[in-house]
Amino acid sequence: MSPFNMLTNIFSSPRISFGLDILKNPQIITSIRRLDGRITKSSTLNIFWFLTKALWKYPGIFDYKPDPSLKGISELTYMILSLEERLRSARLKGAKIVGKWPANPTDLYFGTGITALDPFFAGYVRILAEGSRRLAKHGRAHLSEDACPAQAAAYSLIAKDLFPMDFFYPFIGPWCYDSQYCFEALRDKVEGDYGDHPIHNLKKHEKLSHGYMLQEIERFIAKMEELKGEPVDREKLREEYVLGNKLRGVLREIIEFAYVDPPPINSLDLILCIFISSDWLGDPEAMLQVLLRIRDDLGARVNRGEKAKIVSPNPSRLLMTGIAWGDLGLYNMTDELGGLVVNSECVYNLFYEDIDIEGDPVETMVKRFLSTPYAQPSQKRAQWTVENIRKSKALDGVVFNCNFGCNYQAAEARIVTDAIKKETGLPCLTTDTDLPKENRGQMRTRLGAFLEMIQSRQ
Amino acid sequence: MSASQDVSALLKLRKLLAARPAEIMEAKAKSRKIIGYFCSYIPEEIIWASGMIPLRLARFANNQVAAAGAAYLTSNSCPFARSCVGLKKSGTDEYFGLIDMVADAPACLQMRRVLEVWERYFGVKVVILPVPRRFYANSGRDFYSSCIEQFCETLEESGGEKITASKLENAVNLFNRIRELQRRLYAGLRDESFPLEWTDVLEVIRAGFLLDKEQYRETLEELLVQIEASTKRDISNPKRNRLLVAGAMLAPGDEKLATLLKEVGGTVVMDELCTGSRSTFGDVEKPDFHSIASRYLSAPPCGSLPYPDPESDPRHAHLKKLVEEWGINGIVYYTLRFCDAYSFKASHLKQLMQSLDVSFLHINSDHSDSDAGQIRTRIEAFVESINDGAR
To answer: Is the pLDDT higher at A77 or at A383?
Structure first.
């Protein structure tokens, strides 16, 4: 390759343009909580330096096309990729990092003064960012060849100490089959305990489950107090709910923009905003700033009539349910084929409703746990999904995704999609995925056919 | 079956089983309710005390019927889950067709989905009894105890009789006695001269899932008397391998492992199976809900329930005890494909057994015979290595 061509390639390289984009958007604060309550500010140079290093460390990310021209997306990408570094830095300065699972309400963790980490999302991102399946392979070698890739990645993340974690305290319950056994498999790798989110028949056992769950949450709080070496201020829990409600509210506003014509946000950017609700990437205050930025820019785009890159002018709008695709490239693929993922009803759907800030904060957290849509009996979850579809504007189809190894969610596919088809008339597609890029050809064919079918009906 | 001819109670058990479906239909005609269940955390005492007939449904379907079940679940569901849906859908199993309702104690979340499918697509009434994952704590016990009390009320509302204190006491005494007799059978396997083999004992345990409990108790008592009086096995050539089969379950329709072990000279003297010895341990101290809850949660736990501390893991402790008391020198850990509850635990169990100098073989399979050849080779090598080591 000639020197001239090399130079041309460098300056048109996504790496450089991504880094340059950060320089245009210098305002970001990261505030990983520490015992002393101080906030760390990341300078523009920090971020730029990190991104130029990260982009070489994580070559896999160039398979995915977020829209860096949407203000806030570059910061979001920085926050996702820098999670490990930020957590390590915070831990050195006294922060306590506690592991949780996606369906566990984030506010409870931050509200007790610790920093939450969801190894599901972090592990999966690492697989995608590295462009390598080594984490999943390692996890499966230790768990089972049939383990879901997110479990396998989470296992490896913790077992190999790729992310810092002081204690692993998830709430296990009727939303995931594997998580509890993955927790057990990690017993000799990280100190931990679990909370029990009980299965119950809502009609019969509501009071009993409430009482039991209350004890479980008090137990969790007691452990966090022991970890931090100081009591938990219950009013801080309430403050966290207020912050969490703000975040959830902004997220819901962002989702509403996906229904506008022309759509100002693409599927990948939308789903990333949703995924981060599991642990707010360790930093709820910073994520609020980032999401506000994204929301404001979406508003500006709508005023200008500006469409998101790679999205078709009149896309078919899809609800993602089951387990949202972990292979982020499928979201870009959906856009390229004329679709647009406008919402997700999956394990990351804690943003749908706010937490009640009146009343005793622990009692309201109990209600939050027991009303988690994803943890309800299948028919109830199906009905909840149907009601949300009815409330949403202009949905054209539903994709229920089953992750290999996640037989608990996959076993709901028929009940949920049958209810959707019967009560809303929307067409449903059930897909099966495993590790990133493994079946993109097949997915392209199936998604393409599904979207063609929807478009021919319109 | 390879029992001594002196043990005629085993033949009686088979006859009773053969007549059982007709017996249940007669009972149904007299308005008795039949409750099916899958999980060993359903307290049978309660069902019995309500006058209802408990049937533990534990069987695997053939591939075709299981595939029909997968159409409602997923082909990645465990073969037992697929079988349960397939058998209900196909109507090919008489017991599945006889039940009026089903009790669900969702220790295993895959089975929870099975019963959600039964409820939605086959119109089966499902009564839930939540099982706490903090089964070892007082809070879990209190929760479960209160849920058992509500379970009673639900049974009474669903056509069962009022569960009085005396009925509960009779039921508790009956099931304690049954478990005691079953434990004696398993204890007999420690002795090489015991006239029954492990597969015979397993057959007796499985019969108990379906038979009338009073009849079953009587037959068990006869069986033990006959065993005492029967000809002992020749032990002039003692077996060098003494194996324990651990895992979730073996049930009719999945005889592959038991058959192969026998063919290659494996001597199974104990099991740690949900459909085997595990449900025989522990008795109810007093006829009240809290004692019933204590018994079920203190018994050796199902692998479906997690535990936070490896040092005090009760399942590990139970396995160590079995290894010691039954003189085990090899464990065959049999897990079903997609049964993550058991397969995720395999590597820790292997480490534990290695620390006890017990050989460990993990077999992960579905219930079909397609991998029988491979499994046979592995088991054969395993048994040979233990035999060689024991010389």
So the answer is: A383
CA distances from A279 to A35, A303, B82 (A): 18, 32, 35
Burial (CB < 10 A; 0-12, 13-18, 19+), residue B320, is middle
What sign does the dihedral B276-B281-B284-B290 (CA atoms) show? negative
Tokens of A163: 């992310």
Cα distance from N-terminal residue to C-terminal residue, chain A: 49
Cβ atoms of A76 and A276 within 8 Å: the answer is yes
Among B110, B116, B343, beta carbon nearest to A146: B343
Distance from CA of B124 to the nearest CA of A (A): 14
Please name the residue of chain A whose CA is at the shortest distance from the CA of residue B363: A144
B346 touching chain A per CB within 8 A: yes
Report chain B (391 residues): mean pLDDT per 10 consecutive residues. 67 96 96 96 97 96 94 93 96 95 94 96 95 96 96 94 96 98 97 93 97 97 93 75 93 93 96 96 97 97 95 96 97 95 95 96 89 95 90 53
Q: Which residue of B has its CA nearest to A214?
A: B139
Contact indicator for A299, A269 with CB cutoff of 8 Å:
no
Q: Which of A176, A177, A381 should one mutate to test binding to chain B, selecting the residue with the greatest count of B CBs within 10 A? A: A177
Over the stretch A100-143, which tens digit does the pLDDT of each residue have?
999 899 999 999 999 999 999 899 899 998 988 999 999 999 99
Strand extents, DSSP E, A190-235 = 195-196
pLDDT digits (tens, 9 = 90+) for A37-74: 455 566 666 677 776 777 778 888 878 888 988 988 88
Residue B322 makes CB contacts below 8 A (sequence gap 6+) with B244, B270, B272, B328
Q: What ranges make up the beta strands (E) of A7-161?
A: 97-99, 115-117
Instruction: Please give the backbone phi and psi of residue A350, each rounded to the nearest 5 degrees, phi first.
Output: -70, -5
B-chain residue closest to A218, CA distance = B139
Residue A2 has pLDDT above 70, yes or no: no
Q: How far apart are CA B386 and CA B391, in angstroms?
A: 9
Query: How many Å apart are CA B376 and CA B332, to the nearest integer?
Result: 12
Alpha carbon A341 to its chain centroid, in Å, reads: 14
* Whether the bond into A119 is cis, omega within 30 of 0: no
Indicate the residue of B143, B154, B345 with minimum beta-carbon distance to A184. Answer: B345
Across the interface, which of A178, A188, A196 has its CB nearest the CB of B310?
Answer: A188
Sign of the dihedral through C-alpha B337, B343, B344, B346: negative
Instruction: Identify whether the C-beta of residue A138 lies closer than 8 Å to the C-beta of residue A156.
Output: yes
- How far, rounded to the nearest angstrom, does the alpha carbon of residue B336 sit from its chain's CA centroid? 15
Mutate to test the interface with B, among A168, A180, A210 (most CBs of B within 10 A): A180
CB contacts, 8 Å: A205 with chain B:
128, 130, 147, 150
As a whole number of angstroms, the distance between CA A197 and CA A149 comes to 23
Candidates A416, A422, A273, A255; CA nearest to A342 is A255
CB A346 within 8 Å of CB A124: no
Put simply, whether B110 touches A (Cβ < 8 Å) is: yes
Contacts of A149 (CB under 8 A, 6+ apart): A124, A127, A136, A139, A326, A403, A404, A405, A434, A435
